[in-house]
Amino acid sequence: MTSRNAAATRQRILEHARSQFARHGYTAVTVKGVADAAGVSPNLITRYFGGKDGLFLAATRVEIPVSDSFDGERSALGSRLAASIVQRWFGAPGDDPLLVLQRASGERPEAAEALAAFLDTNSLEPLYRYLRDSGLDDASARSRAAAIDAFVLGVSTRRRVLRSELGDPAELQAWLSATIQRLADG
Asked: CA-to-CA distance for 27 and 160, rounded, in angstroms?
């Protein structure tokens, strides 16, 4: 197998793993089930990922470029964040690793820890710094960032994990935008 084929095979396994973890959670997914869906031997999953735990960790690696949401005036923060959120929920191809982590966090303590660490590093702290740098005092910036973070996580959990209807993306984006902006403005 060439390295190109190995990379493509590894990616195909990860896509199927993300899909299954997102739909069924951690416990119900098996290495054999992912291997069958990807059209590979279960031994390849062991070889590439070390087993189910390694596969789960690889499938839930998340990268979100949040810096774009923090470029600009605070008066339009809600609009920028809402656009980014709706794009992720509706426009991202494949299954979202954040959704996988959200669903698995009730089953796996390490998934909950990974989700919390990700949100702290990629959401809460940058948002706090942005709000502080936009002129808010430290305590206000921290409490407003925490409120926005909790709101978005709550909506995400309600709509994505509990599978409530997301509705029209434009209406959802408008509602998220207005609510996030109210939280940012205090």
From this structure: 18
